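Pinned message: reference record for Pirin
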Amino acid sequence: MAESKPECPVDIWKGKDMNTHTANRIERRPFASLGHADHGWLNARHHFSFADYHDEDRMNWGAIRVWNDDEIGPRSGFPPHPHADMEIITYVRTGAITHKDSLGNQGRTEAGDVQVMSAGTGIRHAEYNLEDETTTLFQIWVIPRARGGSPSWGAKPFPRGERSSKLVVLASGYDEDAEALRIRADARLLGGTIKAGDSVTYDSADGRHLYLVPATGRITIDGETYEARDGAAIIGGAPITITAIEDAEIVLVDSI
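Predicted structure (tokens):
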């Protein structure tokens, strides 16, 4: 999925090793500070530089290049457009998104479920909200291990009830995550629901980069409060504790 002018893969790869947030282990990105583009049918917030929003300090976080918080109006969407050399993950929060691509893949991904697309050497796709309600989703781009490769697409249901009080791997580039959707990157997408007052702990290795967003609900991360749809850029290497102030839905990417 893209805005009116998709980014050039060359420019994206140039930014892969640029990490400027080193002063603190966790950087909070309030929702109000995100890039914003309102096209009428699409109301988008950008956690990272994207399209007409540019911030040198928010080019990427490890291999995470894009995290868009999109609201797509009823009976609207993105017409066919190209991508290459990117792993594109769509996490549907409400409503549903319907996918169609140049490989002949078609599918409808509902709220709570995930679709992934490995753009590889190149693919064209369209994403439409064919519902009578607004669809909300996170679209996340992760830089792959290597350029090229055959493009592919896949989707899978992940019932929210099966993620209660824990973080479940939904998409992964690692063989040990056998139940997750496959991506070709050194990264994992995790999701979970946490009841108010409950906590979960997540640990990561040195050299990892985590990006966490509460899709719904207020939470704390190591005692600092985050509102729904705020972002947290976290340097890995030590556990973090996530506590729900309100019932919350958590989405987390752990990458190199």
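Pinned by admin. Summary line: Residues 209 and 235 are 5 Å apart (CA to CA).
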